[in-house]
Fold each of these.
Amino acid sequence: MLQVKFRREMSPAAPFSRTPPAPLIVQPVAAFSDNYIWLIHSPREPRKVAVVDPGEARPVLQEIERTGLTLAAILLTHHHPDHIGGVPELKRGSDIPVIGPDDERITVNTRIARDAEGVELPELGLAFETLAIPGHTLSHIAFWGHGSLFCGDTLFSGGCGRIFEGTAKQMTASLERLRCLPTETRVYCGHEYTAANLRFAMAVDPDNTACARYQAEVHDKRARGVPTLPTTLALEIQVNPFLRCEQPAIRAAAERHAGRALTDNAEVFGVLRAWKDQFR
Ligand code: ZN
Ligand code: FE
């Protein structure tokens, strides 16, 4: 398995090289008050980019104009306006592909990405796997590839999205699916919510030293105006209470909050999510 994988990625100049390919260059573009639109630089065409979840067009247009980039594809994780609002203006008569979930509320996509299907953008040298991750919305998807995960509003650093359409059980399964990806996966989330999420994480899990350390780091980054993303799954597994529902300390905290015994991870998750919704 491993051999085949590296064979494909070998550079002809170094046939015995076992160096994995360089990570994608992914650049944040800030939008609204706390959204991130992600610009994925093509590993093949240095001036071409794909954009993920352009809720507004203006900051993307400014950035591609400033840097002389060309927008070559648009990827969408879910139908919320703060993730798709900029599509019509960015597309404006061009035939660039707009790839997103199968949802009649999204009328701007030209290609539907279905669960476990590949999304290939050969002109950009990019290929992703689509993962259906219902919960925040029912048709929410993530794009995974090149060691990177674009997960919209499902997984955040230190937290997760609100359950607007799905159930706690669905969201638990979706997060579990993401948690099973390789731990070194870089996670590009839709919002800069990390600091607020960690305040809640520390209330649930006060003895988590990894979380305390991370909180200090995040505080420092935000003070300097630096994005806290991408995060990694390895880190999230240590600090994010919503990925840690099976941990005795998390379950005990959720049971104390609920005032009753909880029987499974989805129930623990449901209590945490409702608790976070009220948490200030
Ligand atoms: Zn959303
Ligand atoms: Fe959002």
Note: The domain at 5-278 is CATH 3.60.15.10 (Metallo-beta-lactamase; Chain A).
Amino acid sequence: MIIDQILDTPIEFLKGVGPQKGKLLRSELAIETYGDLLQHFPHRYIDNKAVLNISDLNPSMDYVQLKGIIMHVREEGNGFKKRLVADLHDASGSLELVWFQGGKWVQKQLEPNKAYTIFGKISYFNSKPTITHPDISLVVEQNGFVAPLIPLYPSTEKLKAKGLNNKNFGKLTQALFEKLKETDIKETLHPNIRQQFKLSGAYYAYKNIHFPTDNNSIQHALRRLKWEELFYTQLKIAKLKVKNAQQQSFHFHNVGAYFNTFYKDHMPFELTNAQKRVIKEIREDTKSGKQLNRLVQGDVGSGKTMVAFLSMLIAVDNGFQTCMMAPTEILAQQHYAGIQALAQTIGIKVAVLTGSVKVKEKRQILSALLDGTIQIIIGTHALIEDTVVFKNLGLAVIDEQHRFGVGQRAKLWKKNVLPPHVLVMTATPIPRTLAMTAYGELDTSVIDELPPGRKPIQTIHRNESFRPQVMQFIKAEIAKGRQIYIVYPLIEESEKLAYESLMAGFEQVKMWFPTDKYNIAMVHGKQAPDEKERNMQRFISGHAHIMVATTVIEVGVNVPNASVMVIESAEKFGLSQLHQLRGRVGRGSEKSYCILLTSNEISKEARQRVAIMVKTNDGFLIAEEDLRLRGPGDIYGTKQSGALQFKIADIVQDVDIIEETKMAAQNILEHDPLLTQPEHISLRYAIEKKSIQAHTPWNKIS
Ligand code: ADP
Ligand code: MG
């Protein structure tokens, strides 16, 4: 094997690794080479001097460093719960150390009556502190240099079992740096950029992120490395945007009879100014001959569907077919019902295609798509299958909660001789930094206005002890002629559990609201479509007073007379879901309420979510808070897409750097859109190389 750069050396050749650990490093952390290890960054540091007294520990602390003598090593429990336990004593007191795995090995290592440094996360059992699986090392008399800050690295259970715990990982990076010369780490940022943005050199940054001399050096290293990572991301996005902007697509020459007739004679309401503005933006794009690549953001209930529908009409007016793709079957069906009702007023043929469509019907749909009889098709991912062939697809609308994968997008683009126009609508607003990164290659339109006459919804938090009062309140609202939603959480891990909790809830509702006096409808995921439909209709028609449901009603349902949304076990919902659910009420002329029912004891995070919901109705603000509380990983399935998997940057904390790098990337591309100038060749090489890099499997990290 010829390795022309030392950083490309396979990881098992490093001192202290070998074939066994090498294999694990690859499979667990995608660390294949010296270079990958170099980019496996510490996630925190401990101050070598910061040794606490056991008596000073308290429940608000997490990772701590202690020094003491380990005594009374013994096995406790049996079978499943067998564990090794030892007491750590210092001058101030003692605590228990616990190992559930690898106890034998630890026992062999421990030397009696010697002082140890202990590092780990404290937890409390019966108000006594313990540390499970601590890092332990003999206190050695140090003479000369002592590293002031010890790096801790992300590791996994399997690696820890092989001795590579958060702390020991540093031995590998140490071995690595013993092999590296300063020139082995290539500088990838142009001196001009480094000077302009005050960024340290590459070698300094890597050296100091792994072996900092002080806090200041960590900050410099962090800034440089985050900057570099975000810069390449933004450059890639900006380059894609340049490419998109040049992409040819179909000319929609005129706004024709379908649009005009519908607009004049069948519009159920006057468009808001925001809706008009966004439609104009879409119109401008579609008549330019270039491809429309636009993200439409708007709060729940801002009227994105009508914007999509009117855009579709322009496509149909110009002889093209259009499709609308939704993330779930239920959502696709709801869009179908809504759009079908609008389209039939002007004689446009609409169909729906999902995974559950029967073979025979599917065959008919496919042939009607091919011969052009179907003008609008609504569906799920079933729409991008290879068997779906259009006569002339001109516009694809994507109503999404999850970011589309690159491969899926490519399939959509291939559905016609030129790629169709693409309109992406988000279900809920997305925070700005997220939009800039995950959707940065798209143009953006924002519907920043709700249809007139919407009354702000009052949101109230009540815990279980107040259930009787809440039920009393609902009775009073029903007596006034209003309708009520009661929603139960979807338990993702277990459909069965979700179903059981819904059924238990349904029984409870019937106890409060006897069925001889109250009419109760119920909708959930296990029902057959016609049963679901029947129940929906009972509620929509005003016949049913109460709709008991799982989150299937989260999207799209429109019953203006419903004025109360009760969310059961609200602590189990995420912020954007709560906001979506709340958006089901407040659509009529009456004052509306959203009641968040929680158990009496809820976690700190749940309490924060609830407080935000009570405080504001603003979906954009809620999206920002959601990102702050949860991090980007969970939002909109972005984790799967990889769009936001950063090694060191943080989309929440690094807003300033995101802005800077975006600007820097745009600047460069403005002067050299294809990155062909000599000083940009390395940039081009870097972003092409970066796109094929393996991603860190965050789910295994502990
Ligand atoms: P979302 O943006 O959440 O997808 P929808 O498109 O479902 O919102 O619209 C929410 C409700 O508001 C629908 O019942 C729709 O008919 C209604 N609507 C949309 N635009 C207007 C408007 N300009 N005036 C009045 N009602 C509107
Ligand atoms: Mg919608």
Note: Residues 635-642, 692-699 have pLDDT under 50 and may be disordered.
Amino acid sequence: MSGELLSVEGLSKRFADRRRTVAALDDVTFSIGMGETLGIVGPSGSGKSTLARVLLRLVEPDAGRILIDGEDWRALSPKALRQRRGSIQMVFQDPLSAFNPRTTIGKAIMDPLRIHAIGNRGARHAAIANLLQRVGLPAEMAGRRIHEVSGGQRQRVALARALASRPRLVVLDEALSALDVSLRGKMLELLVRLQEEEGISFLFIGHDPAVVRMISHRVAVMDQGRIVETGDADAVFSDPQSQTGKALIAAIPTWR
Ligand code: ADP
Ligand code: MG
């Protein structure tokens, strides 16, 4: 690991409806190194998905700074943002919702290539085959539709699409949670291999501490919009210091 890729300082976001105000993010500060995986764990509603969506600029924070390679992500001009937008990508739990059901898998992967103006048409076809191969899928899958393939294959397609714009950071929000144990293990292996080969950084959000521990170098524990504990994955999971961390570890079934 060499150098910091992402640095987040004092990120805050409140949601208000008629009845109450929720601090979904409350003064969140952390960083992720190049080629590093930071795991995020925390109970439901603790702000994990809001954090992911703020990083992807799907949600505008109320306060805070997001630095990527030292550049202030929120202060970028629209043009600069367009040029760099591909550098953070996301994979969701339910890939079906992120795909147009009518288009082929190849087209779905090609869209970001076109948007980021990577290569000409012929080069893009080769790029699609290459992306599918990198996530362990046959190139022929480009001609199929997303609902025609299995859940595990869908997540690989979603990952291939995320990789298309050559991201520096991929945010995985419960991305493996819907997969069965053996598929999840294969995806974890794939992620680790991609990271070794390409130095991608991951922000890995998961509800299963055992899975998060397997892939993460460091872990942050969230509760009510705050990071209540952070440290090396093995240290946090073997000897959590926060009440939230202790409760999460205590909830891991002992038969694992
Ligand atoms: P997690 O992913 O950890 O389960 P979320 O980030 O989804 O948590 O939610 C954090 C808190 O913010 C929750 O109380 C949730 O109800 C609230 N919240 C999230 N998104 C919205 C929204 N768009 N409008 C109102 N409240 C929201
Ligand atoms: Mg969530």
Note: The beta strands are 4-16, 21-33, 37-41, 63-68, 71-72, 88-91, 169-173, 201-205, 218-223, 226-232.
Amino acid sequence: MSRIYNFSAGPAILPEPVLEQAAHEMLDWQGTGMSVMEMSHRGKAFVSIAEQAQADLIELLAIPDGYQVLFLQGGATAQFAAVPFNLLGDHQSADYINTGSWSKKAIAEARQYGDVNVVAEGANTDPMAIPPQSEWKTNANAAYFHYCANETITGVEFPYIPDTGDVPLVSDMSSTFLSRPLDVSKFGVIYAGAQKNFGPAGLTVVIVRDDLLARASEQTPSVWHYQRQAQADSMLNTPASYSWYIAGLVFQWLKREGGLAVMAERNERKATKLYAAIDQSEFYRNPVVPEARSWMNVPFVLADDQLDATFLAEASNAGLETLKGHRSVGGMRASIYNAMPESGVDALVEFMADFEQRNG
Ligand code: PMP
């Protein structure tokens, strides 16, 4: 068996010990004689898996009392609609900041259900940046304020949590969730698809503050109705049970590794190394201002895009896979989630230097 370094943005690399444990438990989960995939979601065994995963996540993020933690389906894209359905209530509109492609998609979806006030646009500058909060045209009566904490495609990440006063803060954290400690008490809603930093596709974690549960519109589909799902322990219908189980194994792995403070240290170190390699060279370039650079997704372009195909082919020969940038921006992108070992970043940096030497 040989494993590559997988820099995919998602579905993405998972910790090897998690995959090994899942393989070990595949045919017979802890003496039940069944795979987790084959279990009734209402049975004792799966309910214990689900509850443990939830408890471990609460512990990892130190989620305070007064929040519900939901394990839903439909991806972050479903949440683009679920958020306005659940939170608009009697309000006229919601505030959104546009910092890139995923913000834009969230905005377009929300516009189908209510009025959206875009407080600022940060996606069109070169280098890309997050407009300072002093320039945001916010509405004090907004139903909520939505931002994408980390734009997976362009690698623009908020280095701070916006202060929105009494307006509930909502964040799409899909590609940065669990990359570092987080003060959950600052948020009304946090959502994240699992397939980047904590599991297989098909599962979305939603963390909702209790006082927001009563706002849902009557048209809210039941599967995305936060209050109904909370009352049903996220099992209003059949959940993504296997993905939930794997996410639980990832949470246990994170705890064994020392928790999110340790992850933050590692992630910062990995990202710093890669950005330093890019900045030191005349051959590679990252299009984001240093203070808004993502720890998780590092896009870069080569000075000569004619070399892109050769770069990717040679990287692949060196065991460095899925480095092609998103089709909308081109170039390269290295996603370096929690499960990417530092040795993977070292191997990439070494390959980049060698490639530059031969082609620069
Ligand atoms: N938001 C962000 C930040 C993402 O990176 C993605 C997936 N790439 C999405 C939303 C959409 O997620 P999903 O495909 O799970 O609906």
Note: The first helix runs from residue 16 to 24.
